[in-house]
Write a structure and sequence with these properties.
This protein is an alpha/beta fold. Helix content is about 65%, strand content about 5%. The protein starts with a strand and ends with a helix.
Length: about 725
Amino acid sequence: MNKPLHIALAGNPNSGKTTLFNHLTGARQHVGNYPGVTVDKKEGFFSFHENSIRVIDLPGTYSLTAYSVEELVARDYLVNERPDVVVDVVDASNLERNLYLTCQFIELGIPLVIALNMVDVAKKRGIKIDTDKLGTLLNVPVFPVIARSGHGVDELLNAVLTTSLAPEHPPALLRYGSDIDGVLREIVPQIESRNLLTDTYPARWTGLKILENDEQILEKVQAADSDLTRTMVQRSEALTHHLKTTLDAFPEAVIADHRYGFIKSILRQGVVSRTHDNDRLYTSDKIDKIVTNRVIGPLIMAAILFVLYSFTFNFSTFLVAWLNAFFGVLSQSVDSMLPDGPVKSMIISGVIDGVGGVLGFVPIIMFMFFGIAVLEDSGYLARVAFMMDRVFHFFGLHGSSVMPFIVSGGIAGGCAVPGVMATRTLRSPKERMATLLTVPFMNCGAKLPVLTLIIGAFFSSHQARYMFLATVAAWLVALMAAKFLRMTVLKGESTPFVMELPPYRFPTMKGLFIHTWERTWQYIKKAGTVILGISILLWAMMTYPGLSPEQTAGFESMRQEISASQAPDAKTRIQHINGQEAEAKLRYSVAGRIGIALESVSRYAGFDWRTNIALVGGFAAKEVIVSTLGTAYSLGEVDPGNTTSLKERLEKDPHWNPVVGLSVLAFIMFYAPCFVTIVAIASESGSWKWGFFSMAFNTIFALILSVAIFQIGMLLGLA
């Protein structure tokens, strides 16, 4: 069987790269992570003209300079994996900025084809591009495409096949002025003569990276030849001093200026023509005048979030009810098929009531992810980041902190782990630390089932409103915590913020469905693997060591005594004895003893021992709270095959009421991050002390808040 053609999609963020990837691969794709980082690795397969093609969607990046983890991942993949062809997806409506990355591709000498995307948007803006002339001047094939509709994709793929057969792809030679070119003429021959990284990079490109003070490349050349590296670094430092004295600029800035000069010289040779006034206000700009307005913008944002939650709960209710009924029937079936014993108890209480409780929220998660995909693909989330920057500076954070907050669940449904990793783009160490310590306060996808359970049980008539308030509360608490940290252990000034606002686009249904399914499937897989394992472990902790023979005999004696009396209410009294025995078993178990021991503190917040068991399980993963509550209340039931949902059990339980529900809700939202997030915090901060700090700081704060809510509710007579 022939080896599949290997292509990589590269380009700037918001250039339509992922849209093209989805169009090519459809459902034939999977998402993972690059080794050692939590940057998404999207890989798919498709066929074209009887050719099997493997395609990788690289992280969006503006350059190949190692300023962020995305740039490092993209660069390392291109030079280490060596795809047969790289498709550079370029936004036709922002040509000059997008071609900056193209310049670096052609300097690397990689086999390249340019997909000039969004030519329809450029046309609406009055921009006409001569693709043939652009291709001739760059010496790279250029093909106009519209990734959303697939227009021009076949012609692009034909060019990819042709390029893959070309024998050589020599690197381009760009000029950077007499000073930099003079130093390159000195060090490039030395690099070539010593074969310094020449198997991986072109010698001139390595020289440029040394002059740009690229840390990763400097580490590699230092490891390969320390003597030559010392000589070249000294020459680079002399150049830096000279440029700083004469031009008040660093070499990397001069190199960037010359690249943009190269791009402008190409565009001015009749490549771009305009049919409209260059200064006219485009549609996106007109919309932004309203949606990013200082006063109206936040109100629109709040309204959009409220609509998102209303849409989620209104349209998912019947599916959630159907799934709860399905797991109820499944529990009854297992109850009737299997004899009483540990296996039956584990399957019903540990698996069905545990994992089933988590899977029952899949419709809500799916609708929430769909709504977020609409906001993301349309370009609105970038506006949220832009507006929040004004607020973030007041709390001592950087505008770039907005995206880690959103990724972590700022609009609900994210994950704190990639949110923590996303802080790598922040330059200020103290702003970065403040951000990665506070992103776990966001309502991640793991918290959603728990929030939905409690809100549905005690505030069912206003679910959307309470979910919206929970989101606002998460932001307020996170920002206040950041302000506290920046005023105490992380003092320092905030740095300025600049970001790009991509044009608004109509999302494609195909893209929305793919994005929704990817995230929903990750949730389902977690429920079927991690949550399943933890649920079974916690079931064992809630089952063993069991009652002593004397205690079991005592309950059996009471049942026999009632049966012998032949009283009219004998059946009801026996069921009551069964319930007492089930609760006694749970209390006597390992988990029960832990929960009871914690009641000495948790009772001030209104938490009983069963709730404590679930909250302890939540240290591993927040979804476990739902499964553990399901198991705990199932093990305490008289009838293990009871189809009553967990929500209904909480509503009827005398230990629960709206005030307790609100107290538990606040604690779950803000107490210690899950174990994986703590590991990520320790890894990103370089010290376990910050991971333990996050665990302790968040839990103490959450407990104080919950105690305040419960005690105030008791004083007001609301409990």
